[in-house]
Design brief:
The protein is mostly helical and 541 residues long. The chain has 23 helices and no strands. It is globular. The N terminus is likely disordered.
């Protein structure tokens, strides 16, 4: 027993390594998100907003189930069980579970794909009932959905492979693999339109074909990493393994919780389908920009955090679990709050620089900027939710987050229906942020009840320091961005001004955090600062 404890990495070293692991995931995710923005820029230039609406709905439908059977299965069900088996029964048993879970998931995803293709008309009615008013738009959306639905098969298998790699502290390849989807979608308008037309699809069907290609590439790209790590398995479907049944039991409540979120997304699409043409696109493009900080920081921390928390729970180190969670939440807020502020004060310049070209004019830019502004207001809350939920999952508690998700849905539905009647798509954006903030408050309250004191007073003090630094940063970036006009597109000079506004704001933020001696600064930038100091010491010698 003593030898086993000595071999296990210490909890303190795990917490010290967490920021580094999150940094690896963040770097890979940043590549994917930047390519994602390039993808959306190409989409905006090549297709009308009304046509983009159809793809947004069709792509959303399989993506809702992807959240349940891909990310949900990997993060909440597979990783905790895999980590527990490896800690208690050894690597060989964990690998056996991986093979059996892969077999069961493969069959489930194949059946789901077939059902989705057959049920496409009913699914489009559920997600975009407003399109029934225009039969041509409805039929085109159904056709796109049928082409896109098998995408969920590739995403599910890619997520399971990523879960195995992440559980073994191998984060780089899973973080970079999603970039291949964006590469495929960027190339699609230039290569796939003839194929789409030959299949009887509208021109934007090229993106649907590109999504399938990108999904397959994400699966294939992880094979070498699995082989090198000794994690390659041949799927063997069986429900006789108690660990497989345990993972399925965990997935049920997770599916319920994520299902609430997907109903939320479905309602958002349905509400937008009754609004003026282009509303889906305005929300979609705003969301893509919001997802840069959410993906780079929130998903990075959540991905790196879950295996660490699962191991701490398995070893019974609950005090260290609390400290690790508080560290992760403070670090998350240190990067998420300034991201929210920058997206708010630079909404119009950012949308102009990224999207305003080709078929995307000033009117579309203004509407997308309004969507971005209000979605950005909730970035910090939604990012923090991604840090809190893994703590429940690490304990094998997948039911508690469902309660908060249900409240999120109720609040979003009420606000979304009421506000969209007077504010169109902006009302939906406001509802998203407000519901996310309330969900975070509820999750923290329920976690405190579960674990006792969490050190949230220190988090609150840190948040106040961050807010003061954000105020200085926001004022600086806003003033610089207003030096040029943005209603006639973004010239090279305008782009340099925007880059300067972001850079200057970042310098002011970090400087203010340093003056206030914010410990989060050292936590987040510690590795960079240590390397810098070592470099100076070497040069001095």
């Amino acid at each position: 027993m003593t030898d086993e404890k000595e071999r296990a990495p210490s909890a303190a070293s795990e917490r010290a390594a967490l920021a580094g692991r999150a940094g690896i995931v963040a770097a890979g995710t940043l590549v994917s998100r930047v390519l994602g923005v390039a993808r959306e820029s190409v989409m905006a230039a090549c297709f009308d907003a009304a046509l983009i609406d159809l793809f947004v709905v069709a792509f959303t439908i399989p993506n809702t189930l992807r959240g349940l059977f891909a990310e949900g299965a990997a993060s909440a069900a597979f990783v905790p069980v895999y980590s527990d088996l490896r800690a208690k029964e050894g690597a060989a048993r964990a690998k056996e579970f991986h093979a059996r879970a892969a077999g069961v998931l493969m069959i489930a995803l194949a059946v789901l794909s077939i059902v989705g293709v057959i049920a496409a008309p009913a699914l489009v009615v559920a997600f975009a009932s407003g399109y029934l008013e225009d039969r041509a738009r409805f039929d085109d959306t159904v056709a796109l959905t049928r082409v896109l639905f098998p995408y969920i098969f590739f995403m599910g298998m890619a997520a399971l492979s990523a879960g195995a790699l992440n559980a073994n502290r191998r984060f780089a390849v899973p973080a970079l693999a999603p970039a291949l989807l964006n590469v495929a979608l960027i190339a699609a308008p230039f290569t796939m339109i003839p194929i789409a037309l030959a299949m009887g699809l509208p021109t934007i069907g090229a993106l649907a074909i590109g999504a399938l290609v990108g999904g397959a590439l994400q699966v294939i790209a992880q094979w070498p990493a699995l082989l090198r790590a000794g994690l390659w398995v041949r799927p063997r479907a069986t429900l006789q393994d108690p660990a497989v049944r345990r993972a399925i039991a965990l997935l049920g409540p997770v599916a319920a919780g994520l299902g609430v979120y997907q109903v939320n997304l479905m309602l958002s699409r349905s509400l937008a389908s009754w609004l003026p043409a282009g509303s889906q696109a305005y929300l979609w493009f705003g969301t893509r920009l919001v997802e840069i900080p959410q993906g780079v920081f929130a998903i990075a921390f959540a991905t790196a955090l879950l295996p660490t928390l699962s191991d701490l729970v398995a070893r019974g180190e609950h005090d260290e679990l609390r400290r690790t969670f508080t560290f992760a939440l403070r670090s998350m807020l240190f990067v998420a709050l300034p991201a929210s502020v920058l997206l708010i004060v630079l909404a119009e310049p950012l949308v102009t620089a990224v999207y305003m070209h080709g078929r995307f004019g000033w009117d579309e830019t203004v509407q997308t900027a309004r969507s971005l502004l209000w979605q950005a207001a909730g970035v910090w809350a939604i990012a923090s939710v991604r840090v809190v939920v893994p703590v429940f999952h690490a304990h094998g508690d997948t039911r508690t987050p469902v309660i908060a998700s249900v409240v999120n849905l109720v609040v979003f539905a009420g606000l979304g229906i009421a506000l969209s009647r007077v504010l169109d798509h902006v009302g939906i954006a406001i509802a998203i942020s407000a519901a996310g903030a309330l969900q975070l408050v509820m999750l923290l309250a329920m976690l405190r009840r579960k674990m006792g004191r969490l050190g949230l007073s220190e988090v609150a003090k840190g948040t106040l320091r961050i807010a003061l630094a954000c105020a200085a940063m926001g004022a600086t970036s806003w003033a610089i961005a207003r030096l040029v006009r943005w209603d006639d597109g973004a010239s090279v000079v305008d782009m340099l001004v925007l880059a300067g506004a972001i850079a200057a704001g970042g310098v002011v933020y970090l400087g203010a955090a340093w003056l206030m001696r914010a410990p989060e600064l050292e936590a987040v930038l510690g590795r960079v600062l240590k390397r810098f100091r070592r470099g100076r010491a070497t040069a001095a010698r």
